[in-house]
Structure formats: structure tokens, C-alpha cells
Amino acid sequence: QEKKIFTVQGPYPVIRSLLRARGWVERKLPGAGKAGSRPEQHHVSQEKQLQKEEGDGDGAEEGEASRLVRDQVPYFIWTNRCSAVDRRLLRQDQVVNHYARVGAFTTKEGLCLNLRSLPWFGQADPDTFFPRCYRLGAADERHAFIEDFRLTAARSLLKVALERAGDELAGTEQRPKSGEGQGASPVPHAMPSTAGPGPPVSPHLVEEALQVCRQHLSSLGHQDIDGDPLSPPMMGTDWDRFLQDYYRVVHEGAGLVLSGAQQREQCRALLQRLATQLPQLCMEGNHNIWILKPGAKSRGRGIVCVARLEKVLQLVGGCTAPLARVGEWVVQKYVERPLLIFGTKFDIRQWFLVTDWNPLTVWFYRDSYLRFCSRPFSLRCLDPPRARHLCNVSIQKRYRPARGRHPRLPPDQTWCCRQLQAYLAQVGRAGAWHQVMVPGMKAAVVGALRSAQDLVESRKGSFELYGADFIFGEDCQPWLLEINASPTMAPSSAVTRRLCASVQRDTLRVVIDYRDNPACPTGAFELIYKE
Asked: Where is this region: Disordered (predicted)?
């Protein structure tokens, strides 16, 4: 009569324990608890922890109760994938933890495609929080990527020219202030200033890059309503030769000389003007590195970092075939100037909860966790990218921490966000978390959801917990990498064991308690958006 019957499919012992402690009875799925249930074994310590906190009922009584409700309708359904439930058979009073068609923002190609429509929904600009991205299976996007790569090379050449001349890239670089990097290891973000082997490139190369950037700046000032330049820049440039010279300068250290103070000032002034039009000018660095991702894979599988255009096109050569599946690969600008902790790259897993799509209702979790790489960050070491550039737990667990690793870096590669806040305070950036990082992540989450809102199948009574992955630039600006449906609740460390249990507990507070009593506590969840 109270409709307290639930079903759980998948490795979620925490949800089971929490619902039982609330007086709910489980209607077990056929085969539950048999040979196929081994994925739950790594959650045992997590469940025991909750049993101590909540108190667990008698097993025999629970078994008898489950038998009594085996033919009853479950009113709360939690599964690890949307397809586990036939939505056509659901009753209005059944609560399910998934929405349909969320691939519009939880797949790499979906996020890449749909964020472009965000300016139509308000003043938000996806270029301020999502590194520019292209689906290489679509011919028009492949051509747009090629043009972007070339333009980035031209801008990068101007940056390198100024850098080697000992100039500061005013308005384009946002390094920590002096004293903010206490304890941090020096990191090879850029190539040395000294010229490497081989003869210097033509002195006309900088002038050529200046001309390309002037044309691009002019086109940025005359965009159409979709944000695309009305006329393509870079006309008349021999790009094969230009890129080969660019590779020699940036990747091989060939000499590059400015013709004089006037050209130096032209480079500086042009980059400053471009910085007002291109929000990603700072984070893109000067190596022109892009990250190539298979569109349908997760946990870092198949990802490579590439710094040469011809290699990108070679790796995805199948995408150029007429019958190639659109969206098979995506290529995204790599954040070359990330915020580092003791010379090491990290990203952050940030949970959020959607309880309605019409009106769109979004809850943001105040606790999150960092995932560190096991090797020091370096742009000189791209292949393979896993140990230095990909922070996924499933990847980093294969590597032992590097010798000489800073002693304050965690051996299990994870921190909670409070440890990050403490570190930022120690290096003189105490306000960054609450003033820059959290507001930026909230805006990115809401922007991504609004761009896909019309594509998701809304259903009253459903909800869904997501995990967004962010990286921060040197200026602490967050950059959204991807959004995951059914984020893992498998604890990989003491930090995640505590936080994964907490976010599940607080999710139930929002989707069960809050619906009946809006004055009840919602744990660490904060309502950040409701249309």
C-alpha cells in the first residue's frame, strides 16, 4: 500500500542497503544472486560500511519479504543502463533512474554536435568551456578541422616567435603569479628558447603567419548568425610547406628569427586582438596538439594525442570513405596549458542530477574527486598518451607511480575536492575554487543540458545521475571533457569509497524525500537550475 517495493539491476549494493534501511522491500530480478552477480563483489566493503551506519535487517526476513512481492509492481527501479527497462510498460507512479536518448550529451559525438546550438538558447558560448571539437566522419566538419589546425599553427608560430625573443605574450598567457607554484615541479610546457639542429626556417615564415592571422581576425569580425566566418581566410597559402616549416620550428627546434622590433610588436598586438575573439587562445598552447577519440568508446580506450595534421588524417583514413559512419571519430583540441599539481596533470569527476527535463531541473553535487596521472606532465611525450595525459582510473591503475614522484601526490591517484582547495590556498589561490572553478563547472553543465534538452525523451517520475569530467586551465578555468551516464560507483580508493556512498545516499534524499517534502535536507546536492 505504501508502494515501497524496489528493483535494482547491476552492482549497486549501496542503493539496496539504503532502501532496505528505509523500510523498502526488494523485488529481485530473475537470476539475482546467482553466478552472474560477481560484479558486485568489489562493492562488499562499501556495503558493510553502510550496514554499520544504517543498520541492516535480518537476512531471512528480507528473503521472505522478497518472495512475498515477487509478483508485485516495483515502484523504484535502479539499473545500470536505460535499455534494461522497457519504458513502454512503465506506469506513471514508477520511478526509474534513467532517461532515454541522453546520447545527445553523454556521447562524444553528441556533445560535439549539440553544443554548437547553445548560442540559440541564450548568451552562453560553448567555446568558453568546451575545447573545440569536430566529428571527422562528416566531410564538412573534417574540412573545418583542417582549417582550424592550420589557423592554430599560424597563431602558435607567432607565440613561439615572441617566446624565443624573450617577450611576454600579454593577454594570451595566464600563468600563476609568482609564489603560487610553491612545491610545484618545473614543467616543460613549451620548447626551449634555443634553436635546435638544422638550418633556420625562412624569415618570411613569421610574415606569412601574420598575414594568415590578420585574415582570420577580419573574418571573425564578419560572422553569420551561426557563428561561421562569411568567407574562408588563408587564401593563397602553401599549407603543406607552411606546416612542414612550422613542425621544424615547434617540434624540432629549428631557428626562427623576427625581422625586427616592428614585426615583434605586430605579433604581440595581433595576438592580443585575437585573444578578445578566441576564448581558447590561452589554453591551446603552441604545440597544436589534438586528442583523437573513438566516438563510441569509454574509459580512455583508443585515444591518441597527435600534433601533425597528416597523422590525424592517416589514423582516421577510413572516415574519408563515402560510406564511413558519421561521428565514428571525434578530434578535440588538447588543453596544452592545464593547471598542474606538483607537475602532474589531473582531472575532476563532478556529479550532477537531473530530476526533470520539462522544466529542466538540475542538482549539482558539492563534493567531487580528482584523478591524477601517474607520470609528470610533458608535451614532449605524447605516444603513448596514457600515463601522462589520460587521467581515467581504469588506465592509471595499470601504471606504477613514477620514480621521484612528489611525496605529496597520492599513491592511489585520487584527492577529494577539499584537498584541492587546501592546495590552492597554500599556493596563493584560495578563492579560485568558489570564484572560478565551481561557477564555471555549473555553467558548463547547464549549458550542455540546455543544448540537448529538446532531444532527450522526458518522462515525469524519472531521474538520472551523471558524471562530468573537467580539466582546469592554468587560470583555473574549467574545460568540460565529457559527460557520463551511469557513472561508476565502484570505489577505487578511500576517497571514492566515501564519496560514491555519499552521492548515492543523497540522490535518494532528492528523488524520494524531496518530492514529498521540499523542506527536507538534500545532503550535498544543490539545486542550481530550474526553468
From this structure: 29-64, 168-203
